[in-house]
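User: quick one, sequence for these tokens?
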């Protein structure tokens, strides 16, 4: 349910920002607000607290983000009035996807066992751009559990070239091997 609501809010904001020609500005504003929500626990507590009225939350936004655009400020005011502030990170995520889709940008998440050197990360980004036929925003995550190799996620597609996956497949094959005396 909340995902559907977040998508509707994101679509409405996208349409408004596109019509007014302020997509980059609104995207930047939303990223700044959501980034602060993620990084600042005190701000997050006040912003999400149910006993703090929307009027005070709007004032808080004005103080913390004085340079935010009018369209973004009005949208955030609507979100606060409807008590949907907890959906803001999800709304921003859907909004980013809409903007990226319009700009031909694909987000790829790459999970590796150890941090990638910058040059290797750039090479991977270039290869993925060629394979996918467009610009790629690369998000690199480190997970030692995969042991080596990498797992690439693009949308709903997953390419698992991790050592862990190869070992799991090998184990499955071994289970089905018949030993003859």
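Assistant:
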């Amino acid at each position: 349910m909340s995902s559907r609501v977040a998508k509707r809010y994101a679509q409405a904001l996208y349409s408004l920002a596109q019509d007014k020609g302020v997509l980059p500005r609104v995207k930047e504003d939303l990223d700044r607000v959501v980034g602060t929500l993620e990084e600042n626990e005190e701000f997050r507590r006040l912003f999400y607290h149910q006993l703090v009225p929307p009027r005070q939350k709007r004032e808080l936004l004005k103080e913390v983000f004085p340079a935010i655009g009018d369209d973004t400020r009005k949208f955030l005011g609507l979100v606060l009035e409807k008590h949907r502030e907890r959906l803001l990170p999800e709304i921003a995520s859907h909004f980013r996807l809409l903007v990226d889709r319009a700009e031909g940008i694909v987000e790829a998440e790459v999970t590796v066992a150890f941090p990638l050197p910058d040059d290797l990360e750039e090479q991977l980004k270039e290869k993925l751009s060629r394979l996918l036929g467009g610009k790629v925003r690369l998000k690199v995550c480190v997970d030692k559990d995969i042991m080596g190799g990498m797992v690439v996620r693009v949308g709903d597609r997953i390419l698992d070239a991790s050592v862990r996956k190869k070992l799991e497949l090998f184990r499955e094959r071994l289970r089905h091997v018949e030993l003859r005396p």
